[in-house]
Specification:
Layout: E1 4-13, E2 18-22, E3 32-43, E4 49-56, E5 64-72, E6 77-79, E7 86-90, E8 97-102, E9 108-116
Antiparallel strand pairs: 1-9, 2-8, 3-6, 3-7, 3-9, 4-5, 4-8
Length: 118
C-alpha cells in the first residue's frame, strides 16, 4: 500500500450539504483509511457567514459534526483542524464522507488535505 497525500478543493459551498471528501475503497474493495490533516474554509463574501462540517459515518450511525455554526468573518478563513488529525474509514463497502454547508449560497470555499491509503 502506498500512502498518497491529496488536496481536494470544493468551491461555492451553499446552504445544502455538499460532500467535500469521500473515503475511497482500496483495491478489490478492500478496507481503506484516510487521515485528514487539514480543513480550511474561506469566506469569499463581504459579509460574515457560518459553516458546518459533518462526518457522515460509513455505518449509517454515529454521524457527528466537526464544527457547527462556526463563524467566518467577511473575507477571512477558518482553519478547522488546528493541528489535530481525523481518521476516516471505508470498510470496503461503505465509506465515511465529510460534508459541509454554509449559511449563504456559494459563499465558502473549502480545502481538505488528506493522507490516503494508511
Amino acid at each position: 500500500m502506498a500512502n498518497d497525500f491529496k488536496r481536494l478543493c470544493t468551491p461555492d459551498i451553499a446552504t445544502s450539504l455538499t460532500t467535500i471528501y469521500a473515503v475511497p475503497a482500496g483495491a478489490s474493495s478492500a478496507a481503506l483509511e484516510s487521515i485528514v490533516i487539514g480543513i480550511t474554509a474561506a469566506n469569499k463574501t463581504t459579509t460574515g457567514v457560518t459553516v458546518d462540517i459533518f462526518i457522515d459515518n460509513e455505518d449509517g450511525s454515529n454521524d457527528v459534526y466537526i464544527v457547527k455554526g462556526a463563524s467566518i468573518p467577511a473575507g477571512a478563513a477558518l482553519e478547522v483542524m488546528a493541528g489535530n488529525k481525523l481518521v476516516l474509514m471505508n470498510d470496503g463497502t461503505n465509506g465515511d464522507n465529510l460534508e459541509a454547508l454554509a449559511s449563504a449560497g456559494s459563499s465558502v470555499d473549502i480545502t481538505v488535505s488528506v493522507l490516503e491509503d494508511v
